[in-house]
Amino acid sequence: MSLKSKLLATLATALLATSAWAQDAISVNDAYARSxxxxxxxxxxxxxxxxAGETDDRLIGVKSDAAARVELHTHKVxxxxxxxxxxxxxxxxxxxxxxxxxxxxxxxxxFMGLTAPFEHGATVPVTLxxxxxxxxxxxxxxxxxxxxxxxxxxxxx
Length: 157
Prior knowledge:
single chain, mainly beta, Immunoglobulin-like, four-stranded antiparallel beta sheet, disordered C terminus
């Protein structure tokens, strides 16, 4: 086996190991997406991201064909008590052995310029991009009837 073949084999093994790590370390639970109705131009997704790994990771991006733009957002309250959505360019830390909630009234995935209405019961394909785990593809169910369980303000579009 040539040196080039050995290097390619080693690289392929490393990439497979990284993919396996992502599958084992990062999991997404209780995900759902919603919009305010059939004519809505925006929507949001919420979920619990679990990191079973031994090192912190960071959700640094998200992509989906469901909208013209997809970003990580949170709510910030200004000095007047007014909540405003803002893009979080640095993403969200997912601590080792812990979880991070993306929830209504807090951190969430924001879809702007929906390419089609979010239909109740349909799914939205989303790719979560992590600093260490890489890309994790998920299908998020659309649930337009789900009520906010946490007592936080609802997300309006």
